[in-house]
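Worked Example 4.2. Consider the chain below.
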Amino acid sequence: MDGTIHTHSSACCFLSRIINRSGQVKKIKNLAVIRLNYIFIKKLQADVSEYPDHSACQFIRHINAMTEKIGVKMKKNSSVLFLLLFGCHMQLAAQSALAYKAFNPFDGRWKGEFRIYSFDGELQQEIKVEQHYFWDNDTQRVVIRDTYPDGRTEVSKGKNYTEGYEIVCRVEKAGGEVTIHNGKLSGNRLFWSRKLPEQGLWESFKEYVTRVDGDTVYFIDGLGIYTSKGVRSILIFEGRYRKQK
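Applying the procedure from the previous section yields the following structure tokens:
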């Protein structure tokens, strides 16, 4: 997954098939009668110019290029294409809003501890953590620095993004292992889950940000079930990070 927001609007797909079918514009009968709203198209391009990788933006640019190629005149009256393009734009805006609502509370630099407990509450490991979340268009990227009790440090990189209306977190760990969690936003709580039944692995995390004694605190609470050599273990996770100024 590349982190790009992919639109799945039936309108976009329909128009794309018509314009690109066999690469032959001549198959489109009376295309010249499709009246585009020139001002709207230009404004649409300006609105989404910050997101050059989005398929919807590429599609809009393609529409303009094709219409200019065949000499279609832009008219001030709206058309069906106007409405379909507007639908693509609205869907893209909705997905951008979802990404912002889900991820923006975590934006910035954080420092704290991540603790791992056994199922009966015995502390297994405590890791000092520094995290930096920042925006890259509609993708929120993160750099994670973990410092272990023996002084060893590992740096991981990840990104939070949306695919359609699905929330996704992808992290590449220091050793090259990649983990992908699917998310769900419930109020101001962001839930992440990962399940690999064939490996006997299930994970679930709840994350949120709130104010505690004048500080902004990032809470993580989770549970994982793991299987190794036929033996299943349950671990409990707890992260508490304070926002750095």
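The two ends are 33 Å apart (CA to CA). The CA atoms of residues 128 and 193 lie 23 Å apart. Compare this with Example 4.1 before moving on.
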